[in-house]
Amino acid sequence: MFDLDLHLHSTASDGTLSPSQLIDKCAESGLKVVALTDHDTLNGIEEAIVQSNKLGTIEVVSGIEISCSWNGEEIHVLGLFPSLSNSRLYDYCNRARKNRLYRCKKIVEKLQQIGVEIEFEKVIDLAGKAVIGRPHIAKALVDAGYVKYPKEAFDLYLGPTHASYYPSSTISPFEAIDLLLESSALPVLAHPMRSKVKSGRNPIKNLSKLVAEFKDRGLQGIEVHYGDYTDDQINKLSVIAEENDLIECGGSDFHNSGNPGEPQPGTIGPPMENFHKLKDRLQ
Ligand code: AMP
Ligand code: MN
Ligand code: MN
Ligand code: MN
To answer: What distance in angstroms lies between residue 114's CA and the mean position of ligand 4's atoms?
Structure first.
C-alpha cells in the first residue's frame, strides 16, 4: 500500500463521497498525505482539512483539476497547493461552473433528441451543490435503467465520439499553467495516457513534444503513477518526466464512482519522497 495519493475527488465535483467521508476512507487505507483535486473547484478543501485535523493521522494538500481543451481534445491539468485566496482562480471556477451547467443542458437535449428520456432537472438534483459534470448525467442514465454503471454511459452515450457529445468551452492547458502559477500552485499534467477504466478517453497526442512546451511554460510535474496504468506506461512516462525535469506525480483519481475495477485510494501513487520534492519546488 502507498502513503501518498495526489489525485482524488469528492462531492464538490463528480465524486460521490463528501470531503470528510473521503478523508476517513483515505486514512483507513493507511494514506498519510492526500491531495483533494476536484474539477474546477476548491469548494471541498476546507472540509477535507478540518476532517484531517480531527483525525490527526493524515495531511490534506489543497488541489484542483482544471479541464482544458487543446486542438479539440480534452487535457486535464492539476494544480497542487493552490492558494485559497487568489481571486483569478475563483473567477475561473465561477466561469467554469456556469459553462458546465450550459454544457450539461446541451448534452441532455441531444440525448433527448435521440430518444433517451432523462430530465435536466433530475441531473441538477443529482449534482446538488457540486460543480456539475458528465458523471452526473451518467448517474441519471443508470437510475433510468439505460446503463448498468456510469462507465457504460460513457461508452454508449457520453464519450467524445458520440452524437450527443458537446464540447466544453474552457481554457487551454497553457492558460491553465499560467493561472495555476499565479495562484502559487504547482501545475501537473494529469493522466497523459489511456486508462482501461476510462476507455472512452483519448490519450494525449504528440505527448513528448507537448510536454516540453508545457515545461517551458512552467509545468512542474506529470502523472506517472496513475490509476490502472501498466508498468509499460509507467516506464514510458517516467522517461518523459526525467527528460523534462518534472516530478513524478499521480494517485488513484478515486471518485467512488461505482464502476467495476475503479482504482482505490492507497493502491497506487508516487513515493513519499516526491511529496518533499514538490514542497521544495514551492519555495
Ligand atoms: P466532464 O468533467 O463533465 O467533462 O466529465 C469528465 C469526467 O467523467 C472525468 O473526470 C471522469 O470522472 C469521468 N469520465 C470520463 N471519461 C470516462 C469514461 N470513459 N468512463 C468513466 N468515466 C469517465
Ligand atoms: Mn471526474
Ligand atoms: Mn481528469
Ligand atoms: Mn481526476
So the answer is: 29
135 CA distance to ligand 1 middle (Å): 6
Query: Does ligand 1 lie within 6 Å of residue 7's CB atom?
Result: no
* Structural domains for the chain: 4-93+172-282 (3.20.20.140), 94-158 (1.10.150.650)
pLDDT for 1 equals 85
Ligand number with the minimum distance to the CA of 11:
2
Could you report the per-residue pLDDT of 127-139, keeping only the tens digit for each?
999 999 999 999 9
The answer to whether the CB of 173 is under 6 A from ligand 1 is no
Protein residue whose Cα sits closest to atom 23 of ligand 1: 198
- Does the beta carbon of 135 sit less than 6 angstroms from any atom of ligand 1? yes
Q: What is the pTM of this model?
A: 0.98
**Would the pLDDT of 64 be above 90?**
yes
In the 3-class helix/strand/coil scheme, how is the chain assigned residue by residue? CCCEEEEECCCCCCCCCCHHHHHHHHHHCCCCEEEECCECCCCCHHHHHHHHHHHCCCEEEEEEEEEEEECCEEEEEEEECCCCCCHHHHHHHHHHHHHHHHHHHHHHHHHHHCCCCCCHHHHHHHHCCCCCCHHHHHHHHHHCCCCCCHHHHHHHHHCCCCCCCCCCCCECHHHHHHHHHHCCCEEEECCCCCCHHHCCCCCCCCHHHHHHHHHHHCCCEEEEEECCCCHHHHHHHHHHHHHCCCEEEEECCECCCCCCCCCCCCCCCCCHHHHHHHHHHHC
Measured from the Cα of 134, ligand 1's closest atom is 3
List, for residues 155-208, the tens digit of each pLDDT value.
999 999 999 999 898 999 999 999 999 999 999 999 999 998 888 788 999 999
